[in-house]
Design goal:
It contains eleven helices and no strands. The chain is mainly α.
Length: 263
């Protein structure tokens, strides 16, 4: 287990160091987002092959990570390719001034790598302890993961289609999954990691994998996900009305005082 963790640390460091070098060359630190999903896939595949852990649970887990990471990488690359630096990273670029390079290295790229190791910990845990067969917890974990994948992938697709229509420029999406939660994609991502945690519970020390879904859920709810986007729209009257009737994170039916304009 220790050797596999050390291997994962080295892989993640090299991976994000390469992204850091490219980002400085093209002056765009937001490319780190393109590497998020693919990084997990890389860690999952290498730790699987290193251990030779070709049993049902391990193969299922790596498959789920590959589906999630592959789809997310494709979505983000397609969305961001050829566009200027994301507003969050551009803001930091202005604020950090002469300390831009060291702070970007530590607070963007290495921090992403550190978080990847914490969130991806159940993957390493399962691949370090290959045990044949699947049990009820594994099937429950798969079901939870599928719910999360549905919310993230469908939510992203609905947002992309909404933005394609020029008539929606500057407007807020309030249909589809976005009618029930203001952030279906973030809810979906957190839910998938709870499903992966359930898959890890059947191996030794599996309970310790709870650090993964707790970290991603708290991050999305209170740090880098929901708060940053909500702050972006804090002066948007349409969003403020939408926020009054729609749950922030957990999906639920909109409040009954939904105005006709918003329906």
């Amino acid at each position: 287990m220790i050797e596999l963790l050390q291997q994962a640390v080295l892989i993640v460091f090299i991976y994000f160091f390469i992204f850091f070098l490219v980002a400085q060359f093209i002056r765009n630190n937001s490319i780190v987002d393109m590497g998020w999903g693919a990084g997990f896939v890389l860690v999952a595949l290498i730790t699987l092959f290193t251990q030779g852990a070709y049993v049902e649970r391990n193969l299922l887990l790596v498959l789920l990570v590959a589906i999630w990471g592959g789809r997310l990488t494709y979505y983000i690359v397609r969305r961001n390719w050829g566009k200027p630096e994301d507003f969050r990273y551009a803001k930091w670029r202005r604020e950090w001034g002469k300390w831009l390079i060291p702070r970007a290295f530590l607070q963007v790229f290495m921090l992403q790598g550190f978080l990847m190791l914490i969130i991806g910990y159940p993957i390493i845990l399962v691949n370090a302890n290959p045990e044949p067969g699947l049990n009820l917890l594994d099937y429950i974990g798969l079901l939870v993961w599928l719910v999360g994948f549905y919310f993230e992938s469908v939510g992203d697709k609905q947002m992309a289609e909404f933005k394609k229509d020029p008539a929606n420029k500057g407007r807020i999406i309030k249909s589809g999954l976005w009618k029930y939660t203001r952030h279906p994609n973030y809810f979906g991502e957190a839910t998938m990691w709870w499903g992966i945690f359930l898959l890890s519970l059947s191996v030794p020390l599996g309970w310790s994998g709870i650090i993964s879904p707790l970290t991603i859920t708290l991050m999305l709810l209170y740090v880098s996900g929901v708060p940053m986007l909500e702050k972006k729209y804090k002066d948007n009257p349409e969003f403020q009305e939408y926020a009054k009737v729609t749950n922030k994170f957990f999906p639920w039916f909109p409040k009954k005082n939904l105005s006709k304009r918003e329906e």
